[in-house]
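Q: Convert this sequence to structure tokens.
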Amino acid sequence: MSKLNSYLVATGLKDYTLTAKEQKALIDFEQAEFKEFKVTDIFDVNNSKSILSRDIIADSGTTPYLCASADNNAVSTYIAYDKQHIDTGNCVFIGGKTFVVTYQEHDFYSNDSHNLILHLKDAEKSKSNQLYLATCVKKGLSHKYSWGDSISNRKIQKDIISLPVKNEQPDYAIMETLISAMKKLVIKDVILYVNNKTQQYSPNILNNSSEARPL
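A:
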């Protein structure tokens, strides 16, 4: 409980109270205006570099080694390798053969050159707005791609996604606010659980109650 509580504080997740701006964004979302955009109007799209799994040593470093798995945000392990093969993070990453879509905060190595890297154009690249965009890419295109018909750089050039807009342009500010609100809604139950357990198993209670048992 102590470690989890420290993590919540360090990551800024301890406060789950919605601001007035976040509440309004959630209420107004159903009436928000959306517009379709070509993926390539929003992102610069490139294929990742490639390092075969047989050529790496697992847990040999601190740089993420990505695969096309949905587990652990597509991170297979952390490695040390030739820096010439590194790809730039702060991007949306698509597993080319599986269509697993994730946000990658840090620079990384990739296991397959079929994987796609999407770098946001013409906007501040924050973690929150790219989490929103990654979800839009996943929800908007997942009906098209599978193992039998995998995505590619050539195919994505024609794809479109739907985004909230303001003055006919992507509204990155509302994306940021919505993701902030969603984080708080998701983490609220965890924080309440931690607070409850911390009180339940505090030293004072343990010293005064024969029924209290450690987790």
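The CA atoms of residues 202 and 208 lie 10 Å apart.
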